[in-house]
């Protein structure tokens, strides 16, 4: 799909880079702020300076399309029990040593990403979501900010059809990108991978502060937000670090759902054991102790720690088993027993 056609659809990308007189440019899509000379690609590998313009090399080039339960994102306060049409291109702006999707996210700069996957127009993505009876489209598997212009065009068309849009993100987008996206974005799950800048630099090739800024900014923009922390033994599982993350979220809004999920050895981090269930339970109790109303211990089905309880009367309003909703008792978004509002995106 040509760049000119893409620009006519959205016009969004041109405000997200700055051209300089020497033919170089500064990308403002994500917080890396890559300075690119003619022909050079960004850290994401999928944006390139072409004659002084920032061009997406993966616009419309899907390498993953799946119909997922929305709980898999994970999002527990967004249309429970519904399906989400999940899509991804190649590329990522992080270099996480524990990436579960490294085959599509961790790329060599010389790779010809422009011929990757299957070409699909935004209109076709939305039509496929409708055909699969999906209530939402999720931009996921890699960091969706790196295919921002394609995601944006899909979001605009999906919103016109009454379909929700969801980002599953590392939170490394700029404020400008967030502001462009927010009017069409129904929900976002942001990974808070650690509360230490040293972890982000060593494990992810990034920084902590832009992630925290995105959480605050998107919340201010009115996007429904949930957070996830993958708890890795010996790296980010101390009481202090978990307390710091929980305190940060609670300082913004105690109704932000926090998912603490278990690590499994993968990619370049095969030297650590899976996260014990006891650690996830401890993390959940820390979050609740810091005032968060909704803390979920994920990917350990059957623990009971994935259910939603009213924060006032403790009545269970949603019962889950893994990615399945077994019981949905909310009445117009409220607890059926005491009438307390349970924040989220409900029917």
Commentary on this structure:
Helices cover 25% and strands 22% of the residues. Among the domains are: 3-56, no CATH class; 213-305, pyruvate-formate lyase- activating enzyme; 307-347, no CATH class. Helix 3 crosses helix 4. By secondary structure, it is α/β, with parallel strands linked by helices.
In the CATH scheme, the class of one domain would be Alpha Beta
Helix content: 25-40%
> How many strand elements?
18
| Head-to-tail CA distance between termini | 36 Å
Notable characteristics:
347 residues; alpha/beta; pyruvate-formate lyase- activating enzyme; eight-stranded mixed sheet; three-stranded antiparallel sheet; 18 strands; 25% helix; disordered N terminus
Q: Outline of this structure?
A:
The chain has 347 residues and is of the alpha/beta class.
SSE topology sketch:
Layout: H1 3-9, E1 17-19, E2 25-27, E3 35-36, E4 47-50, E5 53-56, E6 61-62, E7 64-69, E8 83-88, H2 102-105, E9 118-119, H3 122-131, E10 136-139, H4 148-160, E11 164-169, H5 175-181, E12 187-191, H6 197-204, H7 209-220, E13 224-231, H8 239-252, E14 258-262, H9 277-289, E15 295-297, E16 308-309, E17 316-321, E18 324-328
Helix pairs in contact: 3-4, 8-9
């Amino acid at each position: 799909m040509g760049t000119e056609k893409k620009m006519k659809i959205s016009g969004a990308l041109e405000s997200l880079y700055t051209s300089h007189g020497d033919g170089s440019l500064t990308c403002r899509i994500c917080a890396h702020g890559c300075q690119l000379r003619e022909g050079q690609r960004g850290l994401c590998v999928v944006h390139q300076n072409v004659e002084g313009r920032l061009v997406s090399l993966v616009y419309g080039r899907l390498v993953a399309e799946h119909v997922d339960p929305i709980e898999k994102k994970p999002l527990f306060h967004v249309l429970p029990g519904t399906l989400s049409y999940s899509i991804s291109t190649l590329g990522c702006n992080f270099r996480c040593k524990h990436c579960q999707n490294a085959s599509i996210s961790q790329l060599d700069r010389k790779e010809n990403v422009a011929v990757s996957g299957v070409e699909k127009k935004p209109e076709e993505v939305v039509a496929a979501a409708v055909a699969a009876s999906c209530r939402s489209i999720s931009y996921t598997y890699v960091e969706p900010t790196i295919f921002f212009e394609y995601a944006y065009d899909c979001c605009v068309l999906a919103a016109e059809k009454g379909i929700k849009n969801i980002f599953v993100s590392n939170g490394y987008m700029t404020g400008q990108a967030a502001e462009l996206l927010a009017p069409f974005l129904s929900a976002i799950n942001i990974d808070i991978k650690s509360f230490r800048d040293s972890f982000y630099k060593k494990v992810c090739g990034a920084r902590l502060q832009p992630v925290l800024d995105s959480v605050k900014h998107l919340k201010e923009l009115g996007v429904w937000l949930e957070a996830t922390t993958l708890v890795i033994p010996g790296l980010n599982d101390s009481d202090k670090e978990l307390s710091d993350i929980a305190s940060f979220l609670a300082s913004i809004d105690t109704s932000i759902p926090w998912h603490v999920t278990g690590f499994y050895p993968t990619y370049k981090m095969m030297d650590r054991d899976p996260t014990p269930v006891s650690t996830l339970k401890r993390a959940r109790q820390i979050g609740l102790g810091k005032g968060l109303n909704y803390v979920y211990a994920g990917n350990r089905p059957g623990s009971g720690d994935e259910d939603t309880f009213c924060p006032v009367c403790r009545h269970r309003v949603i019962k889950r088993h893994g990615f399945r909703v077994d019981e949905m008792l909310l009445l117009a978004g409220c607890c059926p027993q005491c009438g307390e509002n349970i924040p989220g995106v409900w029917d």
